[in-house]
Amino acid sequence: MGGELLRSSVSESLSYTKIFYEHFPFYLSIGMTYDQYWNDDCMLVKYYREGYKLRNERKNQELWLQGLYIYEALCDVAPILRPFVKSGTRPHPYPNKPFPLTREEVKRDEKEQEKLNRQKAKALFEAWAARLKLPEEKGVSANGNNN
Amino acid sequence: MAKQIRFEYKGQEYILEFTRKSIEMMERQGFVASDIVEKPMTTLPALFAGAFLAHHRNVKKELIDEIFSKMTNKEELIRKLAEMYNEPIMALMDEPGPNDEGNVKWEASF
User: Fold this and answer.
1) Is A11 in the B-facing interface, judged by CB distances under 8 Å?
2) CA-CA distance, A90 to A92, in Å (whole number)?
3) CB atoms inside a 10 Å sphere around CB A11
């Protein structure tokens, strides 16, 4: 009797079909078709599983980014939400473009920022020079001495 | 890509492979993998015949038996067939990454 119990439990545990049916709904839920699961290359499941992991990671990243934008928006409006706030207080402006996500985007943003800073500095210098009312250039030599 | 065995017999090319459906069909017909040790004489030809279900479902049993009798290096053939038979179920199991913490290393003496 004990042997029968052992035999039945062993053969049941070795039923591959049962295990296939147990996993089947999961693979259907991640986009595999009936035919792909049962009749196609049996290794396809591995790639579907990898794809599912990547999709989850991407979704998590998107949700995290959304949270970051919400946090940024709350921080931006925070000044006007304080009690007894001074009249005329304005919220900080919301970022005028999305946060950079890749190294390339970060580099591109840095370059753009540098360019803007240079233009700003140039404009300031020109305004300062205009205010100085420098004498008109009359044969200024390379070493700066008047001829 | 699933493991396959390819060969030619009397001008016809054959591809042996196991899919989940073919294993389900084999088990429905009474095939039990663990019987390989206790009843090798009936189980091994059944395992060989089952490998035809994926790509050559309509090949007659007599022809399969004839091919099996003429297959050389049967020991290696059976080993490969057993490996192929396990593949559809092994593919469902997640392999731990090579550097995952807590991985157990093991070795066999055979």
Assistant:
1) yes
2) 6
3) 13
From B33, which residue of chain A is nearest by alpha-carbon distance? Answer: A14
pTM, two decimal places? 0.71
E strand map for chain B: 5-9, 12-16
Length of chain B: 110
| CA nearest neighbour of B50 among B37, B36, B38 | B36
Are A14 and B92 an interchain contact pair (Cβ–Cβ within 8 Å)?
no
**Contact call for B88 and A49, based on CB within 8 A:** no
- One digit per residue, the tens of pLDDT, for chain B of length 110 reads 899 999 999 999 999 999 999 999 999 999 998 888 788 888 899 999 999 999 999 999 999 999 999 999 988 999 999 999 999 999 998 776 677 788 888 888 87
Q: What is the 3-state secondary structure (H, E, C) of chain A?
A: CHHHHHHHHHHHHCCHHHHHHHHHHHHHHCCCCHHHHHCCCCCHHHHHHHHHHHHHHHHHHHHHHHHHHHHHHHHHHHHHHCCCCCCCCCCCCCCCCCCCCCHHHHHHHHHHHHHHHHHHHHHHHHHHHHHHCCCCCCCECCCCCEC
Could you give the ipTM of this predicted complex? 0.84
Report which residue type is found at B82: A
